[in-house]
Amino acid sequence: MTSIAVRDLTKDYGSVRAVDGLTFTVEPGRVTGFLGPNGAGKSTTMRLVLGLDRPTAGSASVGGRPYAALGEPLHHVGALLDARAAHGSRTARAHLRALAATHRIPDRRVAEVLEQTGLADVAGRRVRTYSLGMRQRLGIAAALLGDPGVLLLDEPANGLDPEGIIWIRELLRRLAREGRTVLVSSHLMNETASYADHLVVLGRGRLLADTPMKEFLASRTHPRVRVRSTDGERLRGLLHDRGFTTQPDADDRLIVDGARVEDVGPLAAGAGIAVLELAAEEATLEQAYLDLTAGAVQFTATPQEA
Ligand SMILES: Nc1ncnc2c1ncn2[C@@H]1O[C@H](COP(=O)(O)OP(=O)(O)OP(=O)(O)O)[C@@H](O)[C@H]1O
């Protein structure tokens, strides 16, 4: 199957180094989440892979060939970069038919992707009357049109309603299950956690991580448990004696840092304290991501005095 290979890729815009010596491979059969702070170089990398910009140095290829060398590229690579790209005065159906005609794709396929993206009922409307979420769906329809083995989607959930967010999550997972190569950039950490198997993280144009999601979470977060008992004060003292730090939450529970449920349950039982609730706190992608990118954030808001 087809993978995306980025090798020593660098892109300068004047004095701005948008991408800085990047090397990574996006493998088929899984969804790769493409993360990084604003301005980290994600869109630039995607544009370089798609041959929309020329690298200053290095290379990007799809299935071992540069994008420009792929005959009828829509059959190989589907991309959503900017949902505003469609011509506003055309209907969605006409837009997709025009794209399809360049690749000898039958109108039947246009009808299929309109159905698949939930646009069938509004396909006769001019694109300029579309909402952001509808345009986004149209961009995804265009990406799927040629039934490509590789998909690059820049923030596909942008503007989608809750039903649309569930739909895109399931679509991405299915595309990966079918053996396709799926690279998806996003700033939505909960969303990315729900579909990505693998992560590539950029900061200031450089590669910060290229790792399976599970390993990323395990290496960047530490265990925490939440416990509610009949004698919170005494349990707290016992936990402190064992070297754990605790903080109370708003509902009379203790949050115990660095502890597993196996540390807390037996300790409470041994002291005769009844445990009313005991649960491991799930490590979140947001925590792990913020921890990794803390030094690579370029644009930080300054809190204003009220
Ligand atoms: N056409 C261009 N001309 C000049 N500078 C550019 C151009 N495109 C991107 N840049 C700069 O390159 C850097 C990387 O931008 P890019 O859009 O790739 O980041 P990103 O990770 O996609 O960010 P975001 O999450 O905000 O979409 C930024 O500093 C940006 O200002």
Structural description of this entry:
By secondary structure, this protein is an alpha/beta fold. It has 2 domains: 4-212, P-loop containing nucleotide triphosphate hydrolases (Rossmann fold, 3-Layer(aba) Sandwich), CATH 3.40.50; 222-282, Alpha-Beta Plaits, CATH 3.30.70. It is built from 10 helices and 13 strands. The protein has helices at residues 42-49, 92-101, 107-116, 132-144, 162-177, 189-195, 213-220, 232-241, 261-270, 285-293; strands at residues 4-13, 16-26, 30-35, 57-62, 77-80, 150-154, 181-185, 198-203, 206-212, 224-229, 246-248, 254-257, 275-280. It has a 6-stranded mixed beta sheet, sandwiched between helices. Strands 11-12-10-13 form a 4-stranded antiparallel beta sheet, with helices on one face. A 3-stranded antiparallel beta sheet has the order 2-1-4, with helices on one face. Helix 2 crosses helix 3 and helix 3 crosses helix 4 (132-144). The longest helix is centred in the middle third of the chain and has 16 residues, at 162-177. The model has no long low-confidence stretch (mean pLDDT 93). The structure holds adenosine-5'-triphosphate (ATP). Belongs to the ABC transporter superfamily. GO terms for molecular function: ATP binding; ATP hydrolysis activity. Residues 4-229 form the ABC transporter domain. This is Vitamin B12 import ATP-binding protein BtuD. Pfam families: ABC_tran.
Task: Please give a handful of descriptors for the protein shown.
2 domains, P-loop_NTPase, ATP hydrolysis activity, single chain, ABC_transporter-like_CS, 306 residues, ATP-binding, ATP binding, six-stranded mixed sheet
